[in-house]
Recover the amino acids of this structure.
């Protein structure tokens, strides 16, 4: 039996670039909540699909 062709994963889009956010506000906890794990660690770029330019300017704890 022939295998079906593999599915291509959907390309993730940066949430900040999609909303055209110029500045990442470190006080906006509701927005930053999805970029931080339950233990308080910053999630990787490959998980959150954040653009490299945005992740450099994002606030660090």
């Amino acid at each position: 039996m022939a295998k079906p062709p593999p599915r291509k994963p959907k390309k993730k889009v940066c949430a900040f670039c999609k909303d055209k956010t110029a500045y990442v506000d470190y006080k906006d906890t509701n927005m930053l909540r999805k970029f931080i794990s339950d233990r308080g660690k910053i999630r990787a770029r490959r998980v959150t699909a954040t653009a490299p330019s945005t992740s450099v300017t994002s606030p660090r704890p």
In short: The helical segments are 15-18, 29-32, 45-48, 52-57. Residues 15-57 form one domain.
